[in-house]
Amino acid sequence: MIRILRFVSRHPWLFVALHLPLLAVAGYFMLQVKVDNNIRIWLDSSDPALRDYDALLDRFGHDVLVSVVFFGDDLFTQDFLQSLKQLGQDLKDKPEWFEGAFSAGDVYSAWEKIHKERNPDDTEQEYSRKFKKYLTDSELYTGLVTSASGNCVALNFTLTPEGNREYRHDVMDLVREKASLIAGDRTFYMVGQPVHGSELDRLSEHVKKLYSVVMFIAFLLLLYLCRSVFLALFGTVSVALTLLLVQTYAFHRGFTINAVTAAMPALLIVISLSNVIHLVIAFRQRLGGHGDVMKALEEANDHVAWPCFFNAFTTGVGFLSLIVSSLDPIRQLGELVCVGVFIAYFFCLVGVNMGISILRKGLAKTAPEKTEEEDSNPVFRGLANFAISARYLVVLAAIGVTWWGVWSIKQLNVDSNPMEFFPKGSPFRQSYGKVEKDFTGLSPFSLQIHSETSLRDPENLRKIEWIQNFLRSDPQLKGRVADSVSAVDFIKETNRTARGGGPFNSFIPNNPEVLNQIFEEMPTALKNQMEKSFLSADEHWGRIAVQSYTLSSSEYDILLSRVDEWMTENFPEFEAKSIGIVPLINNTQETILRGQIESFSLAGGIIAIVFLFLLRNPFAMVVYMLSCIFPIMVTLATMFWLKISLNASTSTIACVAIGIAVDDCIHFYYRYKTGLRKFLDRREAIRYSLDHAGRAIYFSSVINIIGFSTLFFSGFMPTIYFGGLLAVTMTVALISVLILLPAAILVFGIDRINVKRLKAKAEKESAELPGKEVPENA
Predict the structure, then answer these.
(1) Looking at beta carbons, which pairs linking 87-91 to residues 24 or more positions away fall under 8 Å?
(2) Are 186 and 175 in contact (CB under 8 A)?
(3) Are 269 and 215 in contact (CB under 8 A)?
(4) Of 550, 461, 579, 551, whose CA–CA distance to 510 is shortest?
(5) In angstroms, rounded to a whole number, what is the distance separating the alpha carbons of residues 727 and 732?
(6) 3-state SS of 664-701?
(7) 634: which of 120, 259, 440, 487 is 20 to 30 A away, CA to CA?
(8) CA dihedral of 185, 186, 192, 198, whole degrees rounded to 10
């Protein structure tokens, strides 16, 4: 790499010419990367339950349901109900997007024909009143197209896989526009998995807008360090090129931007800037005194190239370890950032070399007056003196904090609640809360039942009815299950309508002949829906669609365990299984912790090997590793005390943190090693290291903290937690490398033997060469 940088410094304009078309091509491909937060990307692809879910969809059709729920005082007028039915028909006229649509307006059309025959003289107000009572008395339609109180009605539609994946944004805009036209003064909300994904898409796009803020802050910081507008621009453009190239890589790999990978650019910006900052500061330190720009650049390259390479390697390992995760977004984040850190290593160092070489005449005029040795920083020298004098107190405090961290981590919850991903005051979360409070639960799953005998038999139908009654009334499920629908509800509704309405006419007849007659007289639309979604063609497979409230994964675990336990105890003759998004997400939580333990172990092991290679001392490697792990312990403990659970986003914190926290330790080590050879004394080596590397470590940490803190404005709580916790990690890592690591080196006797060897070697060389002086500390 050093040879490449020397070539770049001699021929900077050649590389400028190569960069221009690269920027254009990468910029084009970056625009092709799509945003996709489809619910399936959050599922464990290795979970056998996913195969069961796909088999359920093949048997009963897709369950990507969206509800448009209207609230108001005049929801049952003939005009509004007909408008609602027409809206459903408009959606069905686009079969490439919509599989079907069903609303209170469709029910009204069928009910109106029967009612007019029986009560031809009723006024329109009577029609509205009676139809409202008809709906709210129905076990089928309550929670499906109206609430029990009748204060809302709904249009439900399902999307095709293409409509949900490729055109979700257009679908939501189309439905929202059409619903607005018929709503008038009424309030309406759209809810469902695709709406949830669409909101995540919007937030992912919003996060992208924050990157320009980070880049501007980075430019200002580089301007302060470089003392040159154009050199700061070279550094900023190098960072931008890194982002464009990684986005190009993402496009060719078929990756999409989602709520997790949306954090990737912020990570790469701060990692890329670290390379730029270390090279710029090293260059200006060496420029002082003689003002020879090219010589100072060459020396800075020699000093920075290897530490930055090891930083890229350890950071890349930290992120690459995420590929053991079972979740695609986490794996993609790990792969993209791993690729990005090596691209950043190359292009940022090349970009700074180009800028310095082109601007060398102007930079020579801004050379510091002091040489590197004269440019002592009292702040960092003071920190070094504090670490040396209070070393035992510092190490004891670190041990105490570590113990506190271990205790806190043991209490950490692995839990997730989809609604808690959004701020409490956000319109999206408020709309979901309103619909769940007044209409129905919005977390669906299915209880699939298989029987050796036909599920159309009256006995089996009553067993299914018994199961549904259990779901509605069981004390352990209260507040967890809102409602359920099965083939039984279609039969009971047909029987109720045929008998003139009223709740007492909603039952399963004992006589098989009467039951067969109900099947024959069932309206075509209801019969098709029942046979498509709730009863298989061979009548041996049935489905109970359960609407649960939005809960945490631990609450879902209680719900599913209770249902499975009760079914096994009461209906062993049925092969019953809970299938759907809720069980899948619940299973995913169990794999998150296991995957992150594996990822952290893999990353920590490889980074330990790197330290062992650099230090050539297993005990020293342990001390350096502990100084890197210390910030992670504090961060995970902070999660516990702030009641932040491990989920798909925050679970990556440990692996990401160890990959980034190790960077400053490596830069400290290289300066410390130079100090040992120079002074033959560990205390002086520590002072020298912090005096000369402290500034670069400080500024790179500051830009990390600022960059991660911008994620506070993402509007997506896991991303906010991710950015905030990484900012905490970098703050503690800065303290660790500036105070804890120097103190630990002295307390645990690291490099004591090396100093003795270096002194003996210096004395031997002094004896052989009388003119050579041994350092005073020897």
Answers:
(1) 87/155, 87/178, 87/179, 87/182, 88/155, 88/157, 90/178, 91/157, 91/175, 91/178
(2) no
(3) yes
(4) 461
(5) 9
(6) HHHHHHHHHHHHHHHHCCHHHHHHHHHHHHHHHHHHHH
(7) 259
(8) 10
**What one-character DSSP code corresponds to residue 453?**
S
User: What is the pTM for the complete model shown?
Assistant: 0.80
**What SS3 class is residue 648?**
coil
Summarize pLDDT for 292-337 with one digit per residue, the tens: 888 888 888 888 888 888 888 888 887 888 887 777 888 888 899 8
Q: What H or E segment, with its residue span, contains residue 611?
A: helix 581-615
Judged by average pLDDT, the poorest of 25-29, 147-151, 417-421 is: 417-421
Phi, psi of 206 (to 5 degrees): -65, -40
State the angle between helix axes of 653-679 and 618-641 in degrees (0 to 180), rounded to the nearest 10.
140
Taking alpha carbons only, the member of 566, 563, 552, 531 closest to residue 443 is 552
User: What would the two tokens of residue 499 be?
Assistant: 């008998």
Taking CA 432 as the corner, what is the angle to CA 428 and CA 437, rounded to the nearest 5 degrees? Answer: 150
Please give the backbone phi and psi of residue 576, each rounded to the nearest 5 degrees, phi first.
-115, 145
Q: What is the DSSP pairing of strand 65-71 with strand 98-103? A: unpaired
Q: Report the amino acid identity of residue 492.
A: K
Q: Where are the beta strands (DSSP E) in 240-301?
A: none
| Chain CA centroid to CA 660, Å | 18
3-state secondary structure of 69: strand
pLDDT in tens, 612-657: 888 888 888 888 888 888 888 888 888 888 888 776 667 777 777 7
Strand, coil or helix: what is 485?
strand
- Residue that is written with structure tokens 């405090």 in the block: 397
SS3 for 492-528 is HHHHHHHCCCCHHHCCCCCCHHHHHHHHHHCCHHHHH
